[in-house]
Amino acid sequence: MDVSCRRPGRAWIITPGLRPERFATAQNSGAAVAVVDIEDSVALHDKQAARTAAQAFFAVPTAPCTLGIRMNSPLTIEGTKDLIAMASYTARPDLIVVPKVESARDIDLVAGVLDSDGYTPDIWALIESPRAFETLPAITSAPRLGGVIFGSADYAASVRCGLAWDALHYARCALINAATAANIPAIDAPTWELDDPDALRREAEQARELGFYGKGCVHPRHAAVINEVFTPSEDEIAHARAIVAAADASGNGVTTVDGQMRGTPFFNRARALLSEVDGSP
């Protein structure tokens, strides 16, 4: 599915569904996507209260960003209740994050319940289990899938590995490859160290280098760093313009820019960056 025209911004923030006093902070954190969570942050006996409280997250006159919700797995009773509740919300989410996705049917099920005349929310899959990685090509081919998000904590718990970058490098690479093959964006997992800005910046830079479109966060102050890292710098933009100028001058033949050989792959990448920066098709 080609959803390039609907790609969201770079920083995503998630906030607990039972903490309405945090809703506005998340929405105004600078993140392009704010997600209210009624899954992992909510105990089983509080699920119904969270569904009710989450409605207020979307009842804002003018949303400063894309507003989403992380529901429970649609294959569970709680997930079924989530879908029924969301279908009756007066103000509905722009985006649905579906957790524990291991099959394209999960996406189809959510779309089948929520899609209606005038309402087709973006649906994103949270990829967080070994089984999901085994079936990634099928998941990413779901017609209504808007993108994928890496669930590092659940994945690491499943395979009993650490949360350090090297331990999860294979999973991140596999997710990027599958998402790119399907022409959908991938969002990296949050950095779990709340008070280590150096770790946040390092992980964000590594995620961008690997090909992630953006990164999640669990604290409002992380959004600014993520936005900064994933926004092309002036030097990067200038270099891309130099490559495109060299490509035009050489008739798209192999040439050199700043002492480095450049050809078609480099031309394409530079043009893609400038298309994004300049807002041209």
Any overview of this molecule?
With 281 residues, the chain is an alpha/beta fold. The protein folds into two domains: 4-230, Phosphoenolpyruvate-binding domains (TIM Barrel); 234-278, no CATH class. The protein contains twelve helices and ten strands. It has helices at 23-27, 47-58, 77-87, 104-114, 130-134, 136-140, 152-159, 169-181, 197-210, 222-230, 234-249, 264-278, and strands at 11-16, 33-37, 66-70, 95-98, 122-127, 145-150, 186-188, 214-217, 255-257, 260-262. Strands 1-2-3-4-5-6-7-8 form an eight-stranded parallel beta barrel, surrounded by five helices. Strands 9-10 form a two-stranded antiparallel ribbon. Helix 2 packs parallel to helix 3, helix 9 runs parallel beside helix 10 and helix 11 (234-249) packs across helix 12. It starts with 10 loop residues before the first strand and ends with a helix. It holds the Pfam family HpcH_HpaI. Keywords: Magnesium, Metal-binding. Substrate binds at residues 70, 128.
In brief:
The chain has 281 residues and is an alpha/beta fold. Helices cover 44% and strands 16% of the residues.
What is the helix fraction of residues, given as a range? 40-55%
Name the shape in a single word: globular
- Name the poorly predicted regions: 1-5
Q: What is the level 1 CATH name of the largest domain?
A: Alpha Beta
CATH fold category name of the largest domain: TIM Barrel
Within CATH, the superfamily of the largest domain carries the name: Phosphoenolpyruvate-binding domains
Strand count = 10
Number of domains in the coordinates?
2
Strand/helix succession: EHEHEHEHEHHEHHEHEHHEEH
User: Percent of residues in beta strands?
Assistant: 15-25%
Radius of gyration: 20 Å
Mean pLDDT: 94
Q: Provide the structure class.
A: alpha/beta
Organism: Streptomyces subrutilus
GO biological process, one term: oxaloacetate metabolic process
Domain HpcH/HpaI aldolase/citrate lyase: 16-220
Protein name: HpcH/HpaI aldolase/citrate lyase domain-containing protein
